[in-house]
């Protein structure tokens, strides 16, 4: 994003229709993609604490489902009804920053009393900072972890992923083997993709962990990586698990790890908020390693203020409040922080009462070693171009190598 964050072409202005929206004088509109009661309760508590210095300000959190979030946010901007601030996913960051729709928060954050901007991990800020300008503050630098149903592993007579990881045996081959065994012995799915998606949405969440475990990537330096041997081997293994082993929930069927229908899924620690209703013993473990060794994958999200929001200065002050040390420590129970003082503290490993400290230590380790999901200024166009080619991949008789070559042919002009 170097030297491109403030570029706003005339065509972009026309496309986004950046016109000031309407809002109540002392209400901030804040878009998020969570509907979790536990998350919203915490967010509203932080908003309530803002009243200590801004007694007349209220914050209204508006939930937009994750699958629709970026598109609907774009529609709000185009319709002249921008929120004041909101969450932003890592893959959308370059697109919105290059369009000039994000406010520079740098001066507000650096001048906020006791804020300590230097406490933020410099690598974690990479997507959001250009020189002195700060276009977003990461609130979640969250690695993807394996959630497992220990009850099903016990029923199948298998060591669970946490035990396998501790013994140095948790790798892609073992992952395939235990998923297949669980399907054969219990009749339940061995694995499902994030939130039961991965074929039409969450494509990157499905493909990136195995591709990186094999030592590949999807694109880098303007070159497509889907057609490289590492990516082909990784995706072929997934394809075999879906159609030969029949251990991964296939296209057209819906699994639900949280209700006990799948033994494993991949997600971030924010989903631990759903586990009290699960009804089975469970745990989290690192992603399985591959030929490239351990390759944690990190999803990142930041809080941004929209340049044409009605109350952007007030919104920036709320960002400074929401991301101070105290509130970052509070959010750490669900969202792994980018503040070094919080991440390195014992308070972080004990922040989530649902996840034992020894399992949270794997989260800290993954943050230290992992790479953020890929992003690109043209991410929306790239994902749209990929979609029909990826659809062709998820058929029983698909030629995986050819399908991935077709993905590259579709996206390379955009890279």
UniProtKB/TrEMBL annotation:
Signal sequence annotation: 1-25
InterPro entries hit by this protein: Bact_solute-bd_prot1, SBP
GO terms under cellular component: periplasmic space
A UniProt-annotated Pfam family: SBP_bac_8
Major place of residence: periplasm
Keyword set, alphabetical order: Periplasm, Signal
Origin: domain of life: Bacteria
Subcellular location: Periplasm
Keyword Signal: yes
CDD domains: PBP2_TMBP_like (cd13585)
Family as reported in the entry's similarity comment: Belongs to the bacterial solute-binding protein 1 family.
Name by which UniProt lists this protein: Sugar ABC transporter substrate-binding protein
